[in-house]
């Protein structure tokens, strides 16, 4: 029998309505600044890269004044037709800190060495409201990383989908997309119980893998691409081992440090381009064997390896 777990909002077995979402929203506390941490860092890169506003996220209700978050992307200067194009996204889950700062660090310290070899579009923080509140969901208690699909009700997901469509319409298909994430201890202590409560389901405990791993696409597996990233990241931080079932986070390990999900069916961000090479990184920041700096460095190493692989595959 699954362990009984009572989440502090809602009635067990009943999906949330508007009142429960209001209760959940009232519990969310702003703890850091998207403007200070992300927009300021992006502005500092404007002299070396193109910076574009690709939308705004606006949230308000009867209890909360309107909040507006400008969404910005960083683009290679002098985009060149014929070169492989790579999308790097972070902060789809705002609380996954190293994804945001790993994307920014990559642009600042590594992106210029790919000039003339690859075109880069980097979106460091897809979900700024959640970034400020260390939250997985957006203001409406929606997971953006299940919302990259037609008819999406997540503003963040729709904005990125529009950006990708515009870029592909102007410049052509992306070759690769690497989406930067973390798996944290709060996934098990907070977010999975919250999902179960929100959806009126029973919470079934799982486990958190100790180390870095990747999620490949079941419908378009690219094992050589994944392993090139795993090899690079393994020089920075440890790779998650499988459990006794040869699984990572409930999914069979297909290659060392790699599992697979159905990207498009799940509405995952890594499905948004339809690129040949796609992956989702998962850093484990709560490991006693990893520091916050290592987590950021692991994301940078993953992006560099992904871009190097694509450049070599052309």
Automatic annotation (TrEMBL):
Occurrences of domain Peptidase M14 (ranges): 30-314
InterPro entries, per database record: AstE_AspA_cat, Peptidase_M14
Keyword annotations of the record: Hydrolase, Metal-binding, Zinc
Gene3D superfamilies listed in its UniProt record: Zn peptidases (3.40.630.10)
Highest taxon listed in the record's lineage: Bacteria
SUPFAM superfamilies according to UniProt: Zn-dependent exopeptidases
Requisite cofactors: Zn(2+)
PROSITE patterns found in the cross-reference section: PEPTIDASE_M14
Pfam families xref list: AstE_AspA_cat (PF24827)
Membrane-crossing segments per the record: none
Family (UniProt): Belongs to the peptidase M14 family.
Protein name: M14 family metallocarboxypeptidase
Organism: Acidovorax facilis
């Amino acid at each position: 029998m699954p362990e009984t777990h009572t989440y502090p909002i809602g009635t067990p077995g009943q999906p949330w309505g508007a009142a429960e979402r209001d209760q959940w929203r009232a519990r969310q506390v702003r703890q850091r600044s998207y403007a200070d941490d992300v927009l300021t860092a992006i502005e500092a890169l404007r002299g070396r890269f193109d910076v574009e506003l690709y939308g705004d996220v606006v949230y308000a209700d009867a209890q909360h004044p309107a909040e507006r978050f400008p969404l910005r992307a960083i683009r290679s200067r002098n985009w060149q037709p014929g070169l492989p194009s790579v999308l790097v996204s972070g902060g789809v889950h705002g609380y996954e800190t190293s994804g945001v700062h790993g994307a920014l660090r990559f642009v600042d310290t590594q992106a210029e060495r790919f000039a003339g070899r690859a075109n880069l579009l980097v979106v460091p923080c897809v979900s700024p409201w959640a970034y400020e509140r260390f939250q997985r969901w957006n203001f409406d208690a929606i997971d953006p990383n299940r919302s990259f699909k037609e008819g999406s009700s997540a503003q963040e997901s729709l904005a990125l989908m529009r950006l990708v469509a515009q870029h592909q319409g102007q410049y052509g298909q992306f070759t690769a997309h690497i989406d930067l994430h973390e798996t944290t201890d709060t996934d098990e202590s907070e977010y999975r119980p919250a999902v179960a409560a929100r959806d009126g389901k029973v919470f079934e405990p799982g486990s958190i893998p100790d180390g870095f791993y990747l999620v490949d696409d079941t419908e378009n597996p690219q094992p050589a691409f994944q392993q090139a990233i795993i090899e690079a990241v393994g020089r920075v931080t440890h790779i998650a081992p499988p459990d006794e079932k040869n699984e990572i986070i409930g999914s069979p390990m297909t290659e060392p440090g790699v599992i697979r999900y159905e990207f498009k069916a799940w509405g995952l961000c890594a499905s948004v381009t339809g690129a040949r090479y796609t992956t989702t990184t998962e850093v484990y920041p709560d490991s006693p064997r990893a520091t916050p700096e290592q987590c950021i460095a692991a994301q940078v190493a993953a992006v560099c390896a992904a871009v190097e692989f694509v450049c070599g595959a052309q």
